[in-house]
Amino acid sequence: MLKIVVAIDNGIITEHFGHCDSFEVFDTEKNQITKIETIANPGHRPRVLPNFLADLGVNVVISGGMGGGAVDIFNGRNIEVILGASGDAKTAVESYLKGELKSTESICQKHQYRDQCGK
User: Fold this and answer.
1) Strands, E, within 15-88: which ranges?
2) What's the mean pLDDT in 2-21?
């Protein structure tokens, strides 16, 4: 089983992982989605979200953008990070499962302004 999390705002993949309103969690088996669950973002604080999601057993995280610290924590916990994604979360997961979704390494360098991430 592979557990994939997508950071979303109003059902769409967000540009900034830490400031998303929620996460869609996809359980998959044999490249098929078997369960989808939405969980609220417990809050944007350093190191909290990567460890929170890792503790849920996540294998892959998909987002539009993400800070370097979060990427480092995920990498340290052997969780694959896919950045540069956009659009519908389920479509992105299906593309990932087909091997079609690749990371653009869109790491956020500044966190003062939400709309600067992913650029």
Assistant:
1) 22-29, 32-40, 60-63, 66-67, 80-83
2) 95
